[in-house]
Amino acid sequence: SDLLTRGTKSRSSQDIAAAAERLGASLTTFAGRNSFGLQVQCLRRDLPAMMDLAADCLLNPSFP
Fold it and tell me: How many other β-carbons are positioned within 10 Å of the β-carbon of residue 37?
């Protein structure tokens, strides 16, 4: 799950971190025995931008 935030086809890991930091938000990964995913924490007004970022990480990972 850690690889999800290390880059996508259009963003590097630095781009992902900078986008979340600009909004004062966090984007973290989690994994359990039967599941994995991303957790987003942000202000309500920033949710559309963070959901776009999370969707890019989930749907287009580059797995560097």
Answer: 14
Phi, psi (degrees; rounded to nearest 5) at 10: -115, -5
Q: What is the mean pLDDT of residues 20-46?
A: 95
For residue 31, what are its two tokens?
Answer: 């994994």
Q: What's the pLDDT score for residue 64?
A: 78
Q: Which of 32, 19, 14, 35 minimizes the C-alpha distance to 54?
A: 19
Query: Tokens representing 45?
Result: 């007004």
Q: What DSSP assignment string belongs to 1-64?
A: -GGGGSBBSS-BHHHHHHHHHHTT-EEEEEE-SS-EEEEEE--GGGHHHHHHHHHHHHHSB---
Task: Please give the Cα distance from 7 to 56 (Å, whole number).
Answer: 9
Instruction: Tell me the mean pLDDT in the region 45-60.
Output: 96
